[in-house]
C-alpha cells in the first residue's frame, strides 16, 4: 500500500497525486525539492529510475534515510547545491517555495530541467481579502471534513506562516518565469504550477 493511499493525510499529501500525474512516464531522473522525510520521493521512485531528494532540515533527511531504497537524499540548500544545469527530467516540489524567494526558486528549478522536462509544484500562498474569501471558506470546510474522516498527520519539517507571496503574485511569477505554464488555484489553500520546458 502506498503512503498516499495509506493512513497518513494532510493538505500537502492530498496533492501528491497531482504531482505524480504531471511527471511523465518517460522521466529517468527526478529531483524532489524540499523532500522532507521523503514520502513524495518514495512515490516518485515507483516509476522514475533515479530520484534525488534535497532538504535543509537535518532531522527530516535523517528520517528519510531510515527508509530502505535507493533514493539519494541530500542535506543541503537547493539554491546553492552544485547540481549540473539541465540534469533532471522532472523537478517537483510541495509546500517549499514559500520557504525561499519564490522567483529565485522557480528560476533555479527551470534551469535544472532538461529540455522537454516537467516542473510540477504545489505551494502555499497568502490570501488577499476579499477576493480569496470563497476559496478560503471552501478550503476551511473541506479541510475540516478531511481531518474528521482521514485524521491529520503533522509532518516534522519546519513551517513558515503566513506565506510571503500572494496567490496573484504567484500566478504572475509563473507567467513571467515559465511561459506557457499551467497555474491553478486549489482548495486547502494551495496552488499548482505545471510546466514543460521547451525543446532546445
From TrEMBL:
Alphabetical GO biological process terms: methylation
Family annotation (Pfam families): Methyltransf_11
SUPFAM superfamilies, per database record: S-adenosyl-L-methionine-dependent methyltransferases
Keywords: Methyltransferase, Transferase
Origin superkingdom: Bacteria
Membrane-crossing residue ranges in chain numbering: none
Annotated ranges, domain Methyltransferase type: 31-120
CDD domains listed in its UniProt record: AdoMet_MTases (cd02440)
GO molecular function, one term: polyprenyldihydroxybenzoate methyltransferase activity
Listed name of the protein: Class I SAM-dependent methyltransferase
Source organism per UniProt: Microbispora triticiradicis
Amino acid at each position: 500500500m502506498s503512503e498516499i493511499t495509506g493512513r497518513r493525510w494532510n493538505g500537502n499529501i492530498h496533492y501528491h497525486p497531482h504531482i505524480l500525474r504531471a511527471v511523465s512516464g518517460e522521466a529517468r531522473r527526478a529531483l524532489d525539492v524540499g523532500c522532507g522525510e521523503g514520502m513524495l520521493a518514495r512515490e516518485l521512485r515507483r516509476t522514475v529510475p533515479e530520484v534525488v531528494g534535497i532538504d535543509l532540515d537535518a532531522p527530516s533527511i535523517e528520517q528519510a534515510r531510515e527508509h530502505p531504497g535507493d533514493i539519494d537524499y541530500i542535506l543541503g540548500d537547493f539554491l546553492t547545491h552544485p547540481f549540473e544545469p539541465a540534469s533532471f527530467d522532472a523537478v517537483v516540489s510541495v509546500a517549499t517555495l514559500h520557504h525561499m524567494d519564490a522567483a529565485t526558486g522557480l528560476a533555479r528549478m527551470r534551469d535544472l530541467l532538461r529540455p522537454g522536462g516537467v516542473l510540477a509544484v504545489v505551494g502555499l500562498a497568502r490570501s488577499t481579502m476579499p477576493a480569496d474569501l470563497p476559496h478560503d471558506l471552501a478550503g476551511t470546510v473541506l479541510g475540516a471534513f478531511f481531518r474528521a474522516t482521514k485524521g491529520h498527520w503533522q509532518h516534522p519539517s519546519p513551517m513558515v506562516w503566513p506565506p510571503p507571496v500572494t496567490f496573484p503574485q504567484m500566478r504572475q511569477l509563473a507567467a513571467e518565469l515559465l511561459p506557457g505554464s499551467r497555474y491553478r488555484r486549489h482548495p486547502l489553500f494551495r496552488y499548482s504550477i505545471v510546466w514543460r520546458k521547451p525543446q532546445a
